[in-house]
Task: inverse folding
């Protein structure tokens, strides 16, 4: 599993979330009481700050070929990774593409990725 975004703890459950000014939108894939269907299989509810317990940013981190990365996406048995080691020669040696100045990304076979874990901010 790969997560990269806000999450909110509300009524003992964790939901994907998006800040919306002073409020927060939480999302569910199932119809729950007080949620509005915005498209098939996608439901939203808007909460005021005093209604939820905690909001965090969750990012999935890992290592690939001994170097640190953020997991950006999953497709079949491949992971889109962004290098966080800060050394351009290493990024080039790994065959990564320079997505933006100093930002290196690439696809890696999921079976080669190690130490995958979630980091909360």
Result:
């Amino acid at each position: 599993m790969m997560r990269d975004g806000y999450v909110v703890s509300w009524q003992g459950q964790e939901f994907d979330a998006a800040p919306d000014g002073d409020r927060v939108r939480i999302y569910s894939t199932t119809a729950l009481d007080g949620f509005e269907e915005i498209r098939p299989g996608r439901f939203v509810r808007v909460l005021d700050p005093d209604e939820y317990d905690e909001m965090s940013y969750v990012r999935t981190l890992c290592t690939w070929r001994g170097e640190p990365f953020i997991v950006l996406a999953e497709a079949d048995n491949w992971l889109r990774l962004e290098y966080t080691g800060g050394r351009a020669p290493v990024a080039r040696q790994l065959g990564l593409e320079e997505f933006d100045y100093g930002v290196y990304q690439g696809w890696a076979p999921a079976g080669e990725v190690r130490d995958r874990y979630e980091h909360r901010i």
Summary: The radius of gyration is 18 Å.
